[in-house]
Design a protein that fits this description.
Blueprint lengths: L2 E7 L4 H15 L3 E6 L13 E9 L2 E2 L1 H15 L3 E6 L15 H9 L6 E5 L2 E3 L5 H13 L9 E3 L3 H13 L1
Length: 175
């Protein structure tokens, strides 16, 4: 039985929902898990774990700075353990952009960090227009309009393929 550390950054909360689903799958395999927000600046030296997963959301085409900083500060520890990274972004709703190899945001991110995760995942996210502030709602509607996505400002649209999330969880459990 291994302990899996699941770290995340989220903008609107959907990435932590994905982490919770991963937790269910991983714990169902007999491993234990701990989920921690990267904003809390976790100190890996003080945590006991056997495997590590990082989940990171996209806003306006970029992962949060805290993800870059964490990876830079903890590269050696990340490389010393079985590891995985997943990205959550709405562009992954498109079949031609929903794999680690074809998702432009994940590919750009991998070129910007000095770490090569052993396992990669990419999941389509969620847009909850009513929960967004006026600026974000307007900008995201415009971005999705350009990308032929839903733009009804009263709608909530979840694009996540939960079967794919669970498959990733089984992969992590098997590390």
């Amino acid at each position: 039985m291994a302990k899996v550390l699941i770290l995340y950054s989220t903008t609107d909360g959907h990435t932590v929902e994905i982490c919770s689903r991963l937790q269910l799958v991983i714990e169902g395999s007999g491993d234990t898990t701990e989920i921690i927000d990267l904003k809390s600046e976790p100190d890996l030296a003080s945590l006991a774990f056997d495997k590590i997963v990082i989940g990171a959301s996209i806003r306006y085409g970029k992962h949060q700075r805290v993800v870059y900083d964490f990876i830079k500060a903890n590269r050696a520890t990340l490389e010393a353990h079985p590891n995985a990274l997943f990205s959550v972004n709405v562009v992954a709703r498109k079949p031609e952009k929903n794999t680690p190899e074809t998702n432009p945001y994940l590919q750009k991110f991998l070129k910007q960090i000095d770490w090569q995760p052993q396992n990669l995942g990419v999941f389509a996210g969620k847009i909850a227009y009513p929960d967004l502030g006026a600026f974000d709602r307007t900008m995201i509607r415009f971005i999705l309009w350009m990308g032929k996505g839903p733009t009804d400002p009263t709608g909530t649209y979840e694009f996540t393929d939960w079967d794919k999330v669970e498959e990733f969880g089984r992969t992590v459990a098997a590390l």
